[in-house]
Every structure is written in structure tokens, then in C-alpha cells.
Specification:
transmembrane; Bact_transf; alpha/beta; EPS_sugar_tfrase; transferase
Length: 494
């Protein structure tokens, strides 16, 4: 006879993963936990050695009845720090690869600061300030660097098809198509659309890039479609056939088989800073804040532009001089090229660039536009015969645009903003696209870090409109940092 051991009533039952998504998420979370522990132990240990030296273990100055030495303080600090990270949800699968991960890291560390301050006040603890001044900042930097490395690793794995989230999209034809296109534009997010359910009769598939997403059912056969496609996430967008009761029952049934449910509100290009979640009469609602046109024209943005441009010109002056000499000695003509661009409120200004073309380049533009099919609104050639040998190099790494810092100092441009527009583009604008001209054009922007010249005209316009409506200083700083990486890699520039 074979006997199976009984589990104790209070034993922790480990539930096996129900999908491939849960499997890799658990493994990823485990490595994050190990990495956090290593960073915290290192930070606390380094602080202990640097502050007290070697094997010294002085007592904590306190009014406690028992003597507590700093070895115990270090152990407790590390333990509470780990608890704070777990309590703040810094390793939640929902924020893997999201900027929210960094915000929660900072929040957990600030919570630890607060707990130390409260305990010091209540128990009259005199914790060495130098010890804390080393441990907490060093730990925060280490945790952030570790998470950045893991995010970079996860993104690379997702780009080759690993660590993905298999998504079944449910909704009307237009709404589902928009969602699928959004997922395809961001392969690093890991959302891999494997099928679509729509009430539109007769639709067999939707072409997205070089793929065709098959229609595997309607919005009443989601469970069968999940089993057929082996999806581990269902994303529902606008559809008239599903009511509140249908959503509730679907969530119950999907949970039983380990499938997540995502509901997209259908909002496009709205930043998270403009969204506020509210619960009204048991209904979740999103309040959308007003577009940030005025903030994008604020004095603090102008001050940032001037300070950043002055610093850049000062630090890059040797590079500017070297490029100027290279342009002058390799081809005839002036060093700088002044090109008319349309600035804020439709005012034209001369944009300064290093000359990267031959002096008679403008005389050939009409013929080249005709050869490209006559698209005068967004004319850009990858192998432009008018570009000089030196011009190809400085264009690839956007060095020809460095003189635009002088446009920033003159108040005509901003460091970050919409792409500078030529007159033929502006003349074709409708009321929507004109909003791009509500702020100054920028040296860099969302268009610069999202593909640059590889972008389609529609994508470029949408990115500019998104920047104008969702501006924040944090966004500007993020785009400046991301631009440096895009420029060094020479991505999408010609």
C-alpha cells in the first residue's frame, strides 16, 4: 500500500504556475529579490566599514535598557529595507519594464527614511548620520542600477520573442486594430498579439506590418478563443456587445485558468500624469486632465533651455570647431547652412546647421521630390546625392544639428519640442496639426528617440501632438537622456 504524506494545516502551499507567463514572471521576480538582497547587504556593509572602519562594532547611542551595537543596527536596517521593498510592490509583475518600478523603489526608500526618523524620535536614538548618509543613497543608486540592468535584459529577451505576454484582443474592428497597432509599435513591452475576437461579421484577419492577426471568434466566444490561441492575457477595448455583468463573469472564468484581463479605455496619447482614477457609484472612472499647452511655454522650461544650451555650447566648443574646419576644407561653400523653419505661432526663423550638402543642393530639390513620387509634405531621402562625404558622417550622428543650440539661446527653439517644420509642411496643416506650433520646435523630442527619419509622416505628427499635450519637465529630462543613446547609435538618421 502506498501512503501520501499529509500537508500540515499551516504549511505554505506553493501553487504551480498556470501559464508560461506566470512561469517566467516568477523566475524574474526571484532574480529581482536576490539582486535586491545583494545590493542592500552591500550598501549596509560598505556604510558600516566606511563609517566605523574594519571590524569596529560601536554601540548605538540610545536610551534603550539594552546595549545595541551597530552590527545589529545594520542587520535590522537591511531587513526592514527588504520588507519596505516588498510592501511597496517593487517586484510586482504588473510593473515589470515600467517606469513605475523606479517610483516604487524611491517610495520604499523614503518610507524607510521616515521609519528611521520616527524610531529615532520615539526611542531617542542617535544613529550616526554619516552611516545613514552612505547606506541609504548608495543602496538606492544600487537598486536603481540593478533594476535598470534587469529591465534592459528583459527588453532584449522580448525583442527576440522570449518573456512575452500572449494577448488575445477583443473589440470592434477599428478599436481592436488601433490596439494591435499600438502593441506592434512597442515590441519591448512584450505584448504579442496571437488573435482577435470581434463582433464584425466577415472579418478574417487584420494586417499589421508584415503579420496578419487572425480573427478567431467573436466577443461571445472569448474562452474558446483563449484555449485555441493559448493566450495568457485578454485585452478588451471598445465593444458594444459586452455589458458590466459580462465583464464580471469573464474575469471570474479567466482567473480560473490563469489568464489576466486588461480593459483599455480607448484613450490615445494621454500621459499618465493627466489621468486620475476615481470610483463613482461602484464604477471605475478616469478623469482626463487638460492638455499642458501653457506648461510647455512656462518660464522654468525657458530657464532650463538657456542653462542647458549654454552648458552644451561651452562643453562642445572643441567639437564645434573641429566640425567647422572639416566642412570648410572638404567642400566649397559656407560652414553653416541657414534653413527656414516655422516656429511657435507660425513665425519663421533661420535654423542654423552645419552645411552637410553641396552649395547647389536647393536647386535639385524639386526634381528629387518628383522622383520620390511628389510628396512635398514629408520629403526625406536615405541616400541623398546632394550630401557631401563629411555630411554623411555628421548627419548619421546628428552633429550637423549642434549649432541649433544658438537658436535656443536666441529664443527661437527649445532643447526639447516638436520637430522643426518647413513651410511646405505647415502650408498643408489642418486645425489638428496646427497645434504642433503652439510651442517652440526642439532639437530633440519624441520623434528623435522613436525612429527619427524612419518614422512615417503620421507617426511623426502624432508624437509631436502627444508631446505638446502631455509636456512635463520629467518628460524633457527623460527625452534628453534617451536622445544621447539614439544619437550615439546613429539610429534612423540620414
Amino acid at each position: 500500500m502506498r501512503f501520501e504524506p499529509r500537508a500540515r494545516a499551516n504549511a505554505r502551499v506553493v501553487v504551480p504556475p498556470r501559464s508560461e507567463r506566470e512561469r517566467w514572471q516568477r523566475e524574474y521576480e526571484r532574480w529581482l529579490r536576490i539582486g535586491d538582497l545583494v545590493v542592500i547587504v552591500t550598501a549596509v556593509g560598505v556604510a558600516h566599514v566606511m563609517r566605523f572602519g574594519g571590524t569596529a562594532n560601536p554601540p548605538l547611542a540610545a536610551t534603550l535598557p539594552l546595549e545595541v551595537r551597530y552590527t545589529v543596527v545594520s542587520a535590522l536596517l537591511g531587513l526592514v529595507w527588504v520588507v519596505c521593498l516588498s510592501g511597496a510592490g517593487t517586484r510586482s509583475p504588473r510593473i515589470f519594464g515600467s517606469p513605475e518600478e523606479y517610483r516604487r523603489l524611491l517610495s520604499a526608500t523614503m518610507t524607510l527614511f521616515g521609519l528611521i526618523a520616527i524610531l529615532s524620535l520615539v526611542f531617542h536614538l542617535d544613529i550616526a548620520r554619516g552611516y545613514l548618509a552612505i547606506a541609504l543613497p548608495l543602496g538606492l543608486v544600487g537598486l536603481t542600477a540593478q533594476r535598470w540592468w534587469w529591465r534592459h535584459w528583459l527588453t532584449k529577451r522580448r525583442l527576440v520573442g522570449d518573456c512575452g505576454i500572449r494577448v488575445l484582443v477583443v473589440g470592434s474592428r477599428d478599436a481592436a486594430s488601433a490596439m494591435i497597432a499600438a502593441f506592434s509599435r512597442d515590441p519591448g513591452s512584450g505584448y504579442q498579439v496571437v488573435g482577435m475576437c470581434t463582433p464584425d461579421i466577415g472579418l478574417v484577419g487584420i494586417a499589421v506590418g508584415d503579420r496578419t492577426i487572425p480573427v478567431v471568434g467573436d466577443d461571445r466566444s472569448v474562452l474558446a478563443a483563449v484555449r485555441y490561441t493559448q493566450a495568457d492575457t485578454v485585452a478588451i477595448t471598445a465593444t458594444d456587445d459586452l455589458g458590466p455583468a459580462d465583464f464580471r463573469h469573464m474575469a471570474w472564468e479567466l482567473d480560473q485558468i490563469g489568464v489576466e484581463l486588461i480593459v483599455a479605455p480607448g484613450l490615445v496619447d494621454i500621459s499618465g500624469t493627466r489621468l486620475t482614477h476615481q470610483l463613482v457609484a461602484s464604477m471605475p472612472m478616469l478623469h482626463v486632465g487638460k492638455p499642458q499647452y501653457d506648461r510647455a511655454r512656462s518660464n522654468r522650461k525657458a530657464l532650463f533651455d538657456i542653462c542647458f544650451a549654454l552648458l552644451a555650447v561651452t562643453m562642445l566648443s572643441p567639437v564645434l570647431l573641429a566640425i567647422a574646419i572639416a566642412v570648410k576644407v572638404t567642400s566649397t561653400g559656407p560652414v553653416f547652412y541657414l534653413s527656414e523653419r516655422i516656429g511657435r505661432n507660425g513665425r519663421p526663423f533661420p535654423m542654423i546647421k552645419f552645411r552637410s550638402m553641396y552649395v547647389d543642393a536647393d536647386r535639385h530639390v524639386d526634381a528629387l521630390i518628383a522622383a520620390q513620387g511628389g510628396n512635398t509634405v514629408f520629403f526625406k531621402m536615405k541616400d541623398d546625392p546632394r550630401v557631401t562625404p563629411v555630411g554623411k558622417v555628421i548627419r548619421k550622428y546628428s552633429l550637423d544639428e549642434l549649432p541649433q543650440f544658438f537658436n535656443v539661446l536666441r529664443g527661437e527653439m527649445s532643447v526639447v519640442g516638436p520637430r522643426p517644420q518647413v513651410r511646405r509642411e505647415v502650408d498643408s496643416y489642418d486645425g489638428v496639426m496646427w497645434r504642433r506650433l503652439l510651442v517652440k520646435p526642439g532639437l530633440t523630442g519624441l520623434w528623435q528617440v522613436s525612429g527619427r527619419s524612419n518614422l512615417s509622416p503620421e507617426d511623426s505628427m502624432n508624437l509631436d501632438l502627444s508631446y505638446v499635450e502631455n509636456w512635463s519637465m520629467v518628460l524633457d529630462l527623460l527625452l534628453v537622456s534617451r536622445t544621447l543613446g539614439a544619437v550615439l547609435r546613429g539610429e534612423g538618421a540620414y
